Amino acid sequence: MQEVAKNIYSFGVTLPNSPLKLINAYVVKGENRTVLFDTGFNNPQSEAELLAGLQELGIEIKNLEVVLTHLHADHTGLIHLFKHAGCKIYMSQIDGEHANGMITGKYWHQLDELLALFGLQEDQIDNNDNPGFINQPSEAFDFIELVPGEKFVIGDYDFDVLNLIGHTPGHIGFFDEKSGVLISADTVLDPITPNITFWGFEYIDMLGNYVNTLKELMRLPIKVILPTHRKIIYNPNERMAELIMHHNERLQEILDVMEDDKTYTVRDISAAISWRIKADSWEVFPKQQKIFAAGETMAHLDHLIHTHCVTMTKDEQGILHFTKIAPQIKPF
């Protein structure tokens, strides 16, 4: 347990069998309300550690309000505990709909359709390979919509609700200008990089949206970033500049592995570029990591389409194919 800023407490909640290892749960205490930001996996170990952290702070669940910064199961998985206790639950409309779509199956059906576009059929991936499916919320939940531009006051913190589109379509963050504290969830991480994936063609250029989010954040007087994974960030603009450079390098790497006048699937390119996963080849990549890797590759290809560096076609089986038409990226 650590008091990371005045009246803001953080403790770890383990994410079993996930390379993310744990989330940093944040509790902000105010005179009239106490708010938990995100919950952890719907998993016995995660639940036990979340409840132990709240107990150490002397907080009963029924006296909490809960903010879900975005839809992923490591942030929403245990929301049933707070629903049953009658707590107020806050979330963006877009990600709230996606989160409840996990329960109905709509979300997973859409993911299956995307994986088919990527040419991953031979990898024989199904939902049971996805930790988000295994540890998702157990039931649908009602929530109070948070809209970017609104205020969200907790004690001395006069948070602005921010649109942090990128990691998910409806990701939100919270910035208090007086203290310089930003609760960023998965938007800015260190030393790992947030997964920026492809959400379907209705969400145009999510990588470009993500980088624009970072650039908007760099204009704010942020002193400290409280992320949901890994370490607290005390050099905000330096770290965000590093993340933008990472994506420039990744975009150029994709172009560099593509030969002229040759077409590639998302799977082809994912297998050809570098990853930090400890695996000798794509064939021995963990299946859950293939899902994330292919989605991130597609997000970068989508940006390369919008910047006129590659073209895209679809074959009779519905698989996407890409051809390089420019040797150099247009850097962010």
Which terms would index this structure?
single chain; 332 residues; alpha/beta; Metallo-beta-lactamase, Chain A; Arc Repressor Mutant, subunit A; five-stranded mixed beta sheet; 15 strands
Short description:
It contains 10 helices and 15 strands. The protein is an alpha/beta fold.
Can you put this structure into words, describing what you see?
InterPro entries: Metallo-B-lactamas, RibonucZ/Hydroxyglut_hydro, Sec-metab_biosynth-thioest, WH-like_DNA-bd_sf. Keywords: Hydrolase. Residues 22-229 form the Metallo-beta-lactamase domain. It comes from Fundicoccus ignavus. With 332 residues, this protein is of the alpha/beta class. Helices cover 34% and strands 21% of the residues. The protein has 2 domains: 2-235, Ribonuclease Z/Hydroxyacylglutathione hydrolase-like (Metallo-beta-lactamase, Chain A, 4-Layer Sandwich); 243-324, Winged helix-like DNA-binding domain superfamily/Winged helix DNA-binding domain (Arc Repressor Mutant, subunit A, Orthogonal Bundle). The strands form 3 sheets. A 7-stranded mixed sheet has the order 1-2-3-4-5-6-7. A 5-stranded mixed sheet has the order 8-9-10-11-12, with no helix packed on it. It is globular and about 65 Å long.
Major sheet details: 7 strands, mixed
How many β-strands, per DSSP?
A: 15
CATH fold name of the largest domain? Metallo-beta-lactamase, Chain A
Mean residue pLDDT = 96
Structural class call reads alpha/beta
**Over all CA atoms, what is the radius of gyration?**
20 Å
